[in-house]
Amino acid sequence: MKVSENYAGIPDEFAQLEKAKIVLVPVPYDGTSTWGKGADKGPEAFLEASANMELYDIETESEVYREGIYLTEPITVNDSPEEVVNEVHKITKDYIKRNKFVTLFGGEHSISIGSIRAFNECFDNLTVLQIDAHADLRKSYDGSKYNHACAVHEAAQTTNLIQVGIRSMDVLEKTYMDPEKTFFAHEMVADEFWMDKVVDLMTENVFITFDLDALDPSIMPSTGTPEPGGLLWYETLEFLKQVFNEKNVVGFDIVELCPNPAERSSDFLAAKLYYKMLSYKFMEEGKDELLDDDADLMDNKLGSAFPKFDDDDY
Asked: Can you give the pTM of this predicted structure?
């Protein structure tokens, strides 16, 4: 996998680990997918799209990259699925312990077993918000409990798992599903209060695992297992903004981009979604920093045209 030196081509001063508040871990792994292959190419396509994206977010009036975004080396363990999960767990936990806001971009959804495990070990009473077309609750699949179809089975046992957008599952997954915390797509479309209901079920600390097939194929066709009837762009942003505003989102991962050279809009959507989620997390800080930068720029332009006063002058 080829990656640019800095996320989105941001200046070096915002890309150094020591100063960055945010860490981005690419995980180009696609070892257990069973239909559309190519999620291992997802991080590279996402990073390429990010490098061609405007870094000022109009909605939040911020440039969140100024909080610092450190792009790690990709996790390229390609042995057994268990070893990949263990490596994701180890690296994620290490950066959490360094007091970073840790984000990951996959790769297939099995990587989330490792990321969720790390966050659950580091944050009390964790809610895992799964935004996904598929339940992913199987105990094992194709002889492995580290399969993408098992992505949140462990989370269902060890965290407050809330599932949103589900519209495809095996009947046996009902055994592990909490119906009070599962929001099926066909019910959401008729419930104007579903966002509030989801947030009300959350604890204070929230980790988001976002499978891009949660989105409707009309806006996200390039994923391994597209399902009709998914979320659209602005309702997704409205929901995410509410979660970030009302809860302490401690980190997130985004998975299952399967890039198609003939369809680049999905890559760009993934890039925008990642940046939007960061913008919501650091929204107020980003506004303040942008205003400070504007004030400094204005001072430089005005020079000594206006006097500066100390507090003692009032």
From this structure: 0.90
